[in-house]
Amino acid sequence: xxxxxxxxxxxxxxxxxxxxxxxxxxxxxxxxxxxxxxxxxxxxxxxxxxxxxxxxxxxxxxxxxxxxxxxxxxxxxxxxxxxxxxxxxxxxxxxxxxxxxxxxxxxxxxxxxxxxxxxxxxxxxxxxxxxxxxxxxxxxxxxxxxxxxxxxxxxxxxxxxxxxxxxxxxxxxxxxxxxxxxxxxxxxxxxxxxxxxxxxxxxxxxxxxxxxxxxxxxxxxxxxxxxxxxx
Length: 231
Ligand code: MN
Description:
- The chain has helices spanning about 35-40, 95-100, 115-120, 130, 145-150, 175-185; strands at about 15, 20-25, 30, 50-55, 60, 65-70, 75, 80-85, 100-110, 110-115, 135-140, 145, 155-160, 165-170, 195, 210-215, 220-230.
- By secondary structure, it is of the alpha+beta class.
- Strands 4-3-15-8-9-12 form a 6-stranded mixed beta sheet.
- It is globular, with a radius of gyration of 17 Å.
- The termini are far apart.
- Manganese (II) ion (MN) binds next to loops.
């Protein structure tokens, strides 16, 4: 057994609905620009394809948790997304085989320091500081595909303090789940424990301390978090 010079950090994990067992998280991948109406609201070129970025696994916040309002931003945005959790992986996974790699699904929020993301983009720097900060990946309990199947349509929505802000449908995704796994596995080797946030529909908006977010994907589940005081 390996001995470490400092205690190893805790294993990142997501809850599983109706179970005391957890899903261990290896990597968090995210799809950008996967819903046309969100591309339009961001003023971006509609013809450019989706792409990928990452968040650290320890950015996960569980359902019911509080996310401290992060530092250095005045424009924290919500992006509700369906989450795909993998039980296997590989390289160059064929679309037809991709769903065999899926353990289950959940609902997540790609929290974004929009002002920092856009500032990084404008000077052609990496945008981790806008996307990959502490607490930036709330994720609700996962449900296994063996129970709910592989959802390809259904309402995806987010409320802030009870007011609907985002309201779309999984069927609006530009790349569907098999296509996301196929494309991503061309770039990196996927593995069990990887989770993928699949992009957000239109309606993103700014958050403030005290805001309560309630998200739901029809047939998949829910996640709720509160934005806390400034970190
Ligand atoms: Mn996103």
